[in-house]
Amino acid sequence: MTDQSSKISSDTVKTESQQDLLQFLADEGVDRAMLDEVRAFRERFPVQDPALAHRIPVPDCFYYGKDVWEDALAALLAGKNLLLSGPKATGKNVLADCLCSLFARPSWNISFHIGTDAAWLIGADSFDGERVVFRPGPVWLCANHGGFGILDEVNMAKNESLAVLHSALDHRRMIDVPGYEKIDVHPAARFIGTMNYGYAGTRELNEALSSRFTILNMPPIAEADLDRLIARRFPALREKIREQFVKLFIEIEKKAESSEISERALDLRGILDAISLAQQGLPAGKAVEMCVVNKVFDAYERTLVRDTVQARIPAELGRAEMFGDGRP
Ligand SMILES: Nc1ncnc2c1ncn2[C@@H]1O[C@H](COP(=O)(O)OP(=O)(O)O)[C@@H](O)[C@H]1O
Ligand SMILES: [Mg+2]
After folding, report:
1. Which residue, judged by its Cα, is nearest atom 11 of ligand 1?
2. Closest listed residue to residue 295, CA positions, set 259, 260, 257, 269
3. Distance (Å, whole) CA 71 – CA 284
4. Does 229 contact ligand 1 (Cβ within 6 A)?
């Protein structure tokens, strides 16, 4: 296959997945007028450059939760930046990726940590072997190309180093790097922050920054949605077993909410991973031990979690009993 034809086929896949997502949202009952606005947005801001089209994510799973979808769409369509705040594994990154895909925007995933600084975010001088040139950072590129910038775990950076984002995020919509040209933020560009904020709280985002976002508190996935998510991801998993895994997650969630156990065991990723390991042939008990129970380091608490698991998932439950013929 030539470069050109492989490019075309991968773009076709993307378009199909965006169509699927639109269809999925229509089926979920998301407001039609909003979906029409999204279509109009896509027509207004087509992405022609193949290098940018390549940055439009193709989500491998859809976010479930109609109300959250509508809140997020309203904010982005109104031209606002969005901060997704909530406990871990509430689908913040899944939703952010789905939003980029739905709006068909190239995305820049920008992970924040204690060492994140302005030069890295916006760009800095660099020597290209002959002369000093400006090497743009991800926020600059995203703003310039009309992308969606995912500011992942934005609260983990030092607040002072984020001051450089203020003018990009508020009504000024511009980036002014001293000594360089000032650039305007492209009208299609948006920033979507994520922030883990559990029942016990976490590192806060300062007022200057949080006031520049519309903030969506991400709820834990609803029981019926979790059931559909597991069914979609593991179509061969028997319904009765699926039910037990759903109930197990809800029970751990209740215990974490009432502070009976910490939030370490409350991790949907762990539950999904456990089912994957069991699908590989590990007894269910062992799989859940590795993916859920062992995430808790306190011995007493681990016993509480293990008891909760054992009440629902028999330790010796094997692939054949879980997946019918036992094959993925
Ligand atoms: N409402 C939801 N819809 C779809 N998937 C979800 C939802 N909530 C959690 N998940 C699942 O949980 C896992 C973690 O999601 P992720 O987006 O990485 O979480 P976060 O960024 O909030 O920590 C993924 O497997 C994702 O599919
Ligand atoms: Mg995340």
Report:
1. 91
2. 269
3. 38
4. yes
Secondary structure (3-state) at 233? helix
Counting Cα atoms < 13 Å in the Cβ hemisphere of 115 gives: 0
> Averaged over 122-151, what is the pLDDT?
93
Rounded CA-CA distance 77/279 in Å is 41
- Contact status, residue 150 vs residue 93, Cβ threshold 8 Å: yes
Structure confidence at residue 260 (pLDDT): 87
Q: Identify the pLDDT of residue 18.
A: 63
DSSP code at position 195: E
* CB-ligand 1 contact for 220 (6 Å cutoff): no
Residue 285: is its pLDDT beyond 50? yes
Q: Which residue lies with its CA nearest to atom 6 of ligand 1? A: 91
Does ligand 1 lie within 6 Å of residue 101's CB atom?
Answer: no
What is the reported pTM?
0.88
Q: How confident is the model at residue 320 (pLDDT cuts 50, 70, 90)?
A: very high
Looking from the CA of residue 194, the nearest atom of ligand 1 is: 21
- Residue 16, pLDDT > 70, answer no
